[in-house]
Design a protein that fits this description.
The chain is α/β, with parallel strands linked by helices. It has two domains: about 260 residues, Alkaline Phosphatase, subunit A (3-Layer(aba) Sandwich), CATH 3.40.720; about 35 residues, no CATH class. It contains 16 helices and 13 strands. The strands form two sheets. Strands 1, 2, 3, 4, 5, 6, 7, 8 and 9 form a nine-stranded mixed sheet that branches. It has a four-stranded antiparallel sheet with strand order 10-11-12-13, covered by helices on one side. A hairpin with a 5-residue loop joins strand 12 and strand 13. The longest helix is centred in the middle third of the chain and has 17 residues.
Length: about 400
């Protein structure tokens, strides 16, 4: 039997409710969700692109793979990547990526054909025709990572391509992306497992007016230097951040995960799953050996109507806006615990996928819930892999920094 090809499509900043909610029409994605396994409660590992992909491609949490931010880190050479496993299994491996996923980060290790394209000041889907042409030339079996940027801020959806930052702009970008991806799907052929996910979610103002207020608050912080003489107001204004990377809110960590194609039967899975589970799941579906020591597990039992024990998800927020104040978190279907440095943790009730309450801190009220989540965070943070690899060179650091400036992160 011919091994299935694999397309891993990562739509940057794609929220779960943009696909599974009622407000945005995504008929193409919906078709694959109805044909395959639709995981409605998938949790991304971080809310920043580079560390999120590092977890997807290694099946490991950040303390183990070593990428704790957008700059200053390289993927640990001690780990085996998804591309390396597929290449060892006889697959031709291809990567078409953009944004901060530069080769200097080590994240493209194992791809024999890796192309990084510019993510800013380019036409909508300008990459598509060339990529589709290359896909038609792929030799079976192939594994392809396709990372696209069209749902990332600023939102520039057709027909007018005007830059938008509000909810309507985001939803228009999602709708257009769903439509414009059709030739990519067509190029896959019938013997291809198609995976659709987002690397993290997105935070946006509901209206253009709210966006103006946020810009005013941001300008006030910088001009008036509120941090030095009105820290409380500065912190309040800082909390108005939009985009991603700065927090672990539900709309930032919940992403769609759809796996469709050969060897996959239709199923809707409500149980919480994690991005670190994707690597071992694809290995399982493609009869490849899973590396030892990863943090994820195969989701195939859930896809086939079986069960798996509930496991918490570890999360990090490491965005530039946090100025080094990393947020660590643990999530179950019912609870989320967040910790920033030595400050008192916050515990929020998520209500098993219902309406989450992320405003009331219940840490003091439910210590029996908080303790095991704190223990889980500590265990993950202690799982660091020693890596003897030399740090990033000054040249590599400068390349990454300039690229992040061009993308608007710095």
């Amino acid at each position: 039997m011919t091994p299935p090809n694999v397309l891993l499509l990562a739509i940057d900043s794609l929220r779960a409710d943009a696909v599974f909610g009622p407000e945005v029409a995504t008929p193409n994605i919906d078709r694959y969700a109805s044909r395959g396994a639709a995981f409605r409660h998938c949790v991304s590992t971080t809310t920043s692109t580079t560390p999120s992909f590092s977890s997807i491609l290694t099946g490991c949490y950040p303390p183990k793979h070593g990428v704790r931010g957008l700059q200053g880190y390289r993927l640990s050479s001690s780990l085996t990547t998804m591309a390396e496993v597929f290449a060892a299994g006889g697959y031709r491996t291809h990567a078409e990526v953009t944004g901060p996923l530069l080769p200097q980060t080590g994240i493209l290790r194992g791809f024999e054909d890796a192309r990084h394209r510019q993510g800013y000041k380019v036409p909508f889907f300008e990459w598509r025709d060339e990529v589709v042409d290359r896909m038609h030339s792929y030799v079976d079996p192939w594994f392809m990572l396709l990372h696209i940027w069209e749902v990332h801020r600023p939102y520039r959806a057709p027909p007018d391509f005007t830059k938008r930052w509000d909810k309507a702009g985001y939803q228009a970008a999602v709708r257009a992306t769903d439509e414009w991806l059709q030739p990519v799907y067509d190029a896959c052929g019938d013997n291809t497992i198609i995976v659709i996910t987002g690397d993290h979610g997105e935070d946006y103002p509901d209206t253009a007016f709210q966006q103006k207020l946020i810009r005013l608050a941001r300008k006030s912080r910088k001009t008036l230097r509120l941090k030095s003489w009105l820290p409380a107001l500065d912190q309040r204004f800082q909390s108005l951040s939009v985009g991603h990377g700065f927090a672990l809110h539900e709309h930032l960590v919940r992403v769609p995960l759809i796996i469709s194609g050969p060897r996959v039967s239709p199923a809707t899975i409500e149980q919480q799953v994690r991005h670190v589970d994707l690597f071992p799941t694809l290995c399982d579906l493609c009869d490849l050996e899973v590396p030892n020591g990863i943090d994820g597990r195969s989701l195939r039992p859930l896809m086939e109507g079986g069960t798996l024990p509930e496991e918490p998800a570890y999360m990090e927020a490491v965005g530039v806006k946090l100025e080094g104040n990393r947020i660590a978190g643990a999530r179950t279907a019912d609870w989320k615990l967040l910790r920033v440095g030595t400050a008192k943790p916050a515990l929020y009730r998520l209500n098993g996928g219902g309406s989450p309450d992320e405003k009331r801190n219940l840490y003091g009220r439910y210590p029996e819930v908080a303790r095991p989540l704190e223990t889980f965070i500590a265990q993950v943070e202690e799982s660091t892999v020693v890596d003897e690899e030399a740090p990033l060179s000054e040249e590599d650091e400068a390349t990454i920094e300039q690229h992040l400036r061009d993308l608007g992160y710095l």
